[in-house]
């Protein structure tokens, strides 16, 4: 079945927010919003689930800490014990405190990189990926709302176009996708 | 809305203070100077004492040992003989080895019951009696009492100062979110005179030689002809001398107190006349206070705390103390806010305000941990004797307390306040907040005690009682001060922003 996507463009973020509220109140599902800057509160209006990025960050951080502990234990204790400042070099436990900065830095490194890469993959915005942005102007000063007809089978086409018209867009575009 | 301190709150806070006072008095008359006993074998025990005791007192203690060990034939040798003559001043605190060191020999047990296998040997009985304080001296210098007074005085002074600092910061940055909480900050900083008074008593007593918390106050150490002459303290006397110290103390306390009074006066004035004039005055005066505070918070912590360990220094110390002060202040703000909110006195304080104060508790715990660790790790790692002695003492004699304080004050906030929901839940905030509040009291304890009581510290009735007494009086004073003015600064220009604060 051919699916139609409607892109409604606005020149003001408040208009888009109010429009989205209006549509959602009439049981229209808004599938996405494109905006040059973060619109606070839009996620709860169009029903985007809370991000799980924080959980992945914690897991990447934990991985980093463990890798750092294992690595340092092998490098500085087992393979080549180095005498630095006369600190005990035969036991990880007793020399732990001198490695804390490295544990910390490696934790941060893994958490930050892991989180950034996950974010890019999840949003399909890795460098070189085809852009999903319907209109380059949304990186400047325009705001676009994306509505899929397949999500809104329960609303008649006539009602849908009337509801969208009420929101006061400045431009509208329809695309058929297979 | 006006808050009036309820009878129940009065009874609870003053009740806690009175219970504390009773415990304090009991603890005060129980305080003893520690005498140490080491078992060498079943027939000999080593007795060591570090304090001041003249020959009469020593003879009395010998008699008490003999009389409490009836049935044993014992012989006391002075193993320390001639030791004092060789005392050097290398010791970091200028205490020159033990005052006496006795070897006590049990020739043979006359009491035949002691030959029965299960019976304790005479050596064990003696050690038990020494350890439970039966054989010891009364603490004539009241070292423990004065040290505790300093710990509590500084801790509760710090809470009030932390609130004053945050209030000034709030004005200087023209923040909007916390306007509905400002009266609570004002209330907490109003309790500053308690801390000022107690600290003044401690400093006065020290200046007149009633205690030796600050070694540099002892003129004997500065006299090149004295046998106690301490060249390192002598080298620091341009800064650490009584007249200059008192000039600084007076400067700190008057500055803080005048700013405190002025802020309270202006905010009352704003309630009456409105407009933005007093707000901008407070904005400028807040920035000015921060300038004073930046210098004074560092030098204050050197003077009050770091100079206890006169030989030692750390450039990070001021920040470290300041982060503790700020955090304890924020915890107190949180507790009072939650208490008043539960009573329905703060209709404008919403979840987001609580969340923001919770974020401060979380963030400042990290600041404190970062500074604690930075100070510790660099000194521990470089291992320079004159610096590392500070931590050697703490690790040898205060190991559990020293690392325990860090672990509690770091991991509890990290684990429990990381999530957004726990920072909004009163239950979590109160339980974890109280734990780290006590953790930071122990932090001050760790800063003071190793330099004043060395290895002779304990957490007894005296400590617990004095803490409870201070806590009760402090909270009572705060609630009393809050009842004196309306809980809302109704003419603050950012009031609307604060009412609708949402994150």
Description:
The complex is a heterodimer of chains A (178) and B (503). By secondary structure, chain A is α+β, with helices and mostly antiparallel strands. Chain A has five helices and four strands, in the order βαβαααβαβ. Chain A folds into two domains: 3-49 and 142-177, Alpha-Beta Plaits, CATH 3.30.70; 53-122. In chain A, 48% of the residues lie in helices and 13% in strands. Chain A starts with a strand and ends with a strand. Chain B has 503 residues and is an alpha+beta fold. Chain B has a four-stranded antiparallel beta sheet, with helices on one face. In chain B, α4 crosses α14, α9 crosses α10 (317-342) and α10 (317-342) packs antiparallel against α11. Chain A binds chain B through residues 85-87, 97-98, 100-101, and chain B through 373, 376-377, 380-383.
Summarize the structure in short:
The complex is a heterodimer of chains A (178) and B (503). With 178 residues, chain A is of the alpha+beta class.
Largest interface: pair, residues per side: A-B, 7 and 7 residues
Number of strands of chain B: 6
β-sheet strand percentage of chain B: 5-15%
Strands ordered across the widest β-sheet of chain B: 2-3-5-4
Tally of alpha and pi helices of chain A? 5
* Low-pLDDT residue spans of chain A: none
Tell me the strand order in the biggest sheet of chain A.
2-3-1-4
**CATH architectural designation of the largest domain in chain A:** 2-Layer Sandwich
Descriptive tags:
heterodimer, A: 178 residues, alpha+beta, Alpha-Beta Plaits, 5 helices, rod-shaped, B: alpha+beta, 2 domains, 4-stranded antiparallel β-sheet, two-stranded antiparallel sheet, 16 helices
């Amino acid at each position: 079945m051919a699916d139609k996507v409607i892109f409604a463009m606005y020149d003001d973020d408040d208009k888009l927010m109010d429009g989205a509220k209006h549509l959602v109140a009439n049981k229209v599902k808004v599938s996405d919003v494109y905006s040059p800057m973060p619109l606070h509160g839009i996620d709860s209006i169009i029903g985007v689930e809370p991000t799980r990025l924080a959980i992945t960050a914690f897991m990447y951080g934990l991985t980093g800490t463990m890798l750092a502990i294992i690595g340092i234990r092998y490098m500085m204790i087992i393979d080549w014990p180095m005498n630095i400042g006369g600190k005990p070099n035969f036991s990880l436990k007793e020399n732990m405190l001198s490695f804390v900065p490295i544990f910390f830095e490696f934790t941060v490194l893994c958490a930050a990189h892991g989180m950034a890469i996950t974010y890019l993959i999840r949003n399909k915005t890795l460098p070189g990926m085809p852009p999903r942005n319907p209109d380059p102007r949304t990186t400047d000063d325009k705001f676009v709302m994306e509505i899929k007809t397949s999500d809104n089978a329960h609303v008649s086409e006539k009602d849908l176009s009337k509801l969208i018209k009420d929101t006061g867009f400045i431009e509208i575009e329809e695309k058929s996708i297979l | 809305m006006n808050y009036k301190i309820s009878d129940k709150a009065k009874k609870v806070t003053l009740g806690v203070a009175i219970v504390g006072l009773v415990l304090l008095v009991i603890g005060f008359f129980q305080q003893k100077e520690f005498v140490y006993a080491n078992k060498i074998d079943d027939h000999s025990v080593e007795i060591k004492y570090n304090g001041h005791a003249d020959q009469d007192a020593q003879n009395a203690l010998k008699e008490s040992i003999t009389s409490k060990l009836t049935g044993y034939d014992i012989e006391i040798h002075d193993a320390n003989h001639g030791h004092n003559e060789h005392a050097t001043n290398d010791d970091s605190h200028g205490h020159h080895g033990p005052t006496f060191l006795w070897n006590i020999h049990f020739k043979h047990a006359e009491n035949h019951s002691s030959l029965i296998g299960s019976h304790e040997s005479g050596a064990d009985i003696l050690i038990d009696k020494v350890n439970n304080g039966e054989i010891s001296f009364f603490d004539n210098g009241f070292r423990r009492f004065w040290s505790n007074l300093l710990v509590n005085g500084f801790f509760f002074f710090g809470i009030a100062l932390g609130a004053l600092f945050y209030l000034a910061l709030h004005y200087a940055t023209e923040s909007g979110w916390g306007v509905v909480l400002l009266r609570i900050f004002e209330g907490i900083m109003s309790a500053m005179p308690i801390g000022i008074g107690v600290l003044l008593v401690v400093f006065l007593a020290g200046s007149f030689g009633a205690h030796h918390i600050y070694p540099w106050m002892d003129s004997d150490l500065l006299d090149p002809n004295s046998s106690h002459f301490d060249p390192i303290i002598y080298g620091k006397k341009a800064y650490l001398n009584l007249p200059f110290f008192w000039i600084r103390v007076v400067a700190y306390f008057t500055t803080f107190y005048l700013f405190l009074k002025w802020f309270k006066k202006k905010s009352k004035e704003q309630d009456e006349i409105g407009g933005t004039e007093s707000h901008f005055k407070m904005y400028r005066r807040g920035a000015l206070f921060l300038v004073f505070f930046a210098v004074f918070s560092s030098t204050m912590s050197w003077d009050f705390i770091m100079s206890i360990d006169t030989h030692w220094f750390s450039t990070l110390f001021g920040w470290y103390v300041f982060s503790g002060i700020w955090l304890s202040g924020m915890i107190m703000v949180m507790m009072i806010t939650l208490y008043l909110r539960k009573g329905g006195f703060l209709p404008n304080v919403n979840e987001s305000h609580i969340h923001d104060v919770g974020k401060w508790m979380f963030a400042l715990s990290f600041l404190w941990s970062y500074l604690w660790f930075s100070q510790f790790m660099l000194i521990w790692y470089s291992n320079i004797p004159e610096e590392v002695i500070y931590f050697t003492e703490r690790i040898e004699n205060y190991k559990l307390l020293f690392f325990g304080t860090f672990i509690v004050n770091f991991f509890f906030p990290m684990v429990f306040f990381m999530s957004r929901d726990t920072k909004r839940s009163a239950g979590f905030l109160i339980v974890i907040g109280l734990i780290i509040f006590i953790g930071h009291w122990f932090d001050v304890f760790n800063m003071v005690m190793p330099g004043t009581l060395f290895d002779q510290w304990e957490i007894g009735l005296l400590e617990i009682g004095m803490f409870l007494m201070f806590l009760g009086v402090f909270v009572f004073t705060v609630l009393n001060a809050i009842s004196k003015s309306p809980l809302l600064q109704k003419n603050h220009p950012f009031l609307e922003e604060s009412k609708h604060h949402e994150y």
